[in-house]
Write a structure and sequence with these properties.
The protein has 145 residues and is α+β, with helices and mostly antiparallel strands. It has helices at 3-22, 26-31, 48-55, and strands at residues 37-40, 43-46, 67-78, 84-97, 101-118, 121-134.
């Protein structure tokens, strides 16, 4: 696998995370952390079950959260041996709940990721989400209503 293949596969993993969340597939999103940890501001949940428990506070509307997670400014550093990587990227979460919540940015932050490669597949070892600007999250998470 070449460096460009690694970058492509890592980017695909980052986008899969966003797509799973935005489609309401919280189980699938949690499975991305089967052997990893995920959380906001260093409060990390480890493993699928723990991450899924934290994701249970996401508010769904007809099965989806009415959000779009936009990842940008992706900086990937693959280790010399090609078996680990660090990734930093920006996240902007947009949300719209028709009738009472017009489209707006509800969260802007930074992802700090540690990844590992096993059997030619990249996986999350850790995803720390650092908030930079937090808007009205009341329609996205029940614990922030």
């Amino acid at each position: 696998m070449t460096l460009s293949d690694d970058h492509h596969d890592i980017t695909a993993l980052l986008y899969a995370y966003c797509d799973l969340l935005d489609s309401g597939n919280l189980d699938g999103c949690a499975r991305l952390f089967q052997n990893g940890a995920w959380g906001v501001d260093g409060d990390l949940a480890s493993g699928t079950a723990a991450v899924r428990t934290v994701l249970s506070n996401v508010t769904l509307y007809n099965g989806v959260p009415n959000t779009r997670h936009l990842t940008s400014n992706v900086l990937i550093k693959v280790s010399v041996d090609g078996l680990s990587a660090t990734v930093r990227s920006c996240i902007t979460v947009m949300q719209c709940v028709p009738e009472d919540f017009p489209m707006q940015a509800i969260f802007i932050g930074t992802y700090h990721d540690l990844l590992s490669k096993q059997d030619d597949r990249w996986a999350f070892q850790e995803r720390k989400i650092i908030p930079n600007l937090v808007g009205d999250m009341s329609r996205h998470r029940t614990d922030m209503a």
